[in-house]
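Chapter review: from sequence to fold.
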Amino acid sequence: MGVDVLLVGPLPTPAIAFLTRSLRADAGVMISASHNPYQDNGIKFFSNDGFKLPDEFELRMEELLSSGEIEHLRPTADDIGKAFRIDDAEGRYIEYVKRSIPRDLDLQGLNIVVDCANGAAYKVTPKVLRELGATVWAIGNEPNGTNINAECGAMHPAQLQREVLKHGAHIGMAHDGDADRIIFVDEQGRVVDGDHVVTMLALDLHERGMLKKRTVVGTVMSNFGMELALAQAGLTLIRTPVGDRYLLERMLAEGYNVGGEQSGHLIFLDFNTTGDGLISGLQVLKLMKRGGQPLSKLAMCMTATPQVLLGVKVRSKPDLQGIPELQQAIQKAEATLNGTGRVLVRYSGTEPLLRIMVEGKDQREIQGVAEDLACVVRSCLT
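The token string follows.
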């Protein structure tokens, strides 16, 4: 179509957001399956200011391609675009990421296991951590084109947990395939999810007067315990639909600087225009280093309300409001909990799944409620 292309990969999604701004490009494009298997590759677009495009823009782009409306614009001869590889793209991003922590702070003395999910961060994350002085054991750092996210990374932390205990590491960090998210494992081998991380970092920013409007943006999936912990500090949690783009839209519209999802999508607008797993990781390491506290103690900033998450494969995704049996089952579940918990039923945005979340005081009770809902879903949608 006559566009000049700057090739910079493989690099994490947030690196593309940064480089689009840094190189003053008109747009950025990331090809990635995100946290999914390699067969599910998709395309993420960024505008020239490094923010993801709104849904309506992406739909219009698809219309232009599928309708043939732009076929007559195809250039010929000298008007065809050219492709150039930017050799220092990795270095540019590495230096940018390192600027997210103070110059006088290093990671000397920290032992870290990092799982790169055989994905886009396989090189940059271990390199940054080592350059900052940490001792690093890297796993999931041998991508072959098909093993991305395969029993590794943020979606599959079991191997990371074992490696942290094996090496006696202070912390484990796991990206998803395109490294816009991160989850952690503490020194005792326990997973620390995005809710705990957002809470600990938000409380720290609040103490230093850097949390805008005393507010954190989460999603409908954010654990109720996070809301309680923030409220005890006089802070507000605002919930959006699931998806980092909805977090970002709310943050930009209302002037907030911290948001995140349980899944490890964490957005710190003081540093980048999108979720950046490596920058998020550095903020946690900074907190550990500055306060001299282990991750297990930092994670005690909130107590998670018991939660059950189930996924049911579905053939199609009809409007849930139009399924009377399911609506009745949801009402029955809410009556069972009697105000002591929450029920959320929604479709996955990327997979043929219906997701069920139930929160409450009693683990056995909410497990039963979730499984009853799953049975109804299977009868209606599979």
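Two observations follow directly from the output. The chain has a mean pLDDT of 94. The chain has twelve helices and 16 strands.
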